[in-house]
Amino acid sequence: xxxxxxxxxxxxxxxxxxxxxxxxxxxxxxxxxxxxxxxxxxxxxxxxxxxxxxxxxxxxxxxxxxxxxxxxxxxxxxxxxxxxxxxxxxxxxxxxxxxxxxxxxxxxxxxxxxxxxxxxxxxxxxxxxxxxxxxxxxxxxxxxxxxxxxxxxxxxxxxxxxxxxxxxxxxxxxxxxxxxxxxxxxxxxxxxxxxxxxxxxxxxxxxxxxxxxxxxxxxxxxxxxxxxxxxxxxxxxxxxxxxxxxxxxxxxxxxxxxxxxxxxxxxxxxxxxxxxxxxxxxxxxxxxxxxxxxxxxxxxxxxxxxxxxxxxxxxxxxxxxxxxxxxxxxxxxxxxxxxxxxxxxxxxxxxxxxxxxxxxxxxxxxxxxxxxxxxxxxxxxxxxxxxxxxxxxxxxxxxxxxxxxxxxxxxxxxxxxxxxxxxxxxxxxxx
Length: 431
Description:
sulfuric ester hydrolase activity; 11 helices; metal ion binding; calcium; 13 strands; CATH 3.40.720.10; globular; five-stranded mixed sheet
């Protein structure tokens, strides 16, 4: 969807990771008017180099691009600050007479290269002396920098006079990886699992939507929504008709987001993976998981390590003093924003210890799991043996989805892509 007929300028500053072996698959050839970012899934936060090991040999090169040109001038600039500053400058220079779309997919807090996966600036890490674990402290610093970045972008929109008709969406893309290769030390407690697994900890992402255009604002929503819903939602917001689009898996969810109308979505496909031989789907409140990812290494719940946060932290006060709050105070012309107290607590999940205290079943020989996520969001009580009718129905739905899948294409690594063949960069390599 390039949307030229809607008159929208599309801009992206991000981790692309959607294919780049030909230039035609890179952002500015797929509809975006501007691009600043990197093509692959991770890189060093300061050098912007990507390391890859092939046959015991490290292959390294620059993966930072301005359009289709390598960006050699950002060495030493911390990635989160780099992308934020670029986004702010873009906002300052936008043509305000045109509708705009900015996709800012930050590097943080994704891990960097395998030799130094966690990187944060000292001023951010110094805010968290109580954590008591080095990697978790670095991770907290990475998240804190991201928090500042969100504030800087909101402030720039306010100073540009664009906040009053903007829709701001913040969303995580997946759960954290607590340990192992390329771990970020992100913990998904109390949810079960980690990134790439079929469990809720891998995919139940934190998100918020802010906009003066919301008809019913200041609320916590537990309506079901999937990442595929964003495209038709944004397209419709921009004035397009979703009937013009090719058949999509997603739905226009603006009525749900804006007016709290019932979600159009009842089913979710988490994954159907023939390589790891596992699958998971959700239908209404029930979820079925068949098989396991990575030999079950991420099946359990991972407790939060390190020290406890200070008792009774002033989270509401931190929110009131944030960069974003200052921008909103300027927008509304008042110092008291009337933040609802205790929002963080009201969005937190808890799981009864009688359900989840014993984790022995996480290492069981079970291959089929059925959960009622309304009652058991932490996936502790397997209902497969007691709810046969529901299980059979869910299996039928899963098989319908499975019949629509196509075999994944996973070619071998092509040495022609290595930076030594492209002036030290990870560039498209097939003409």
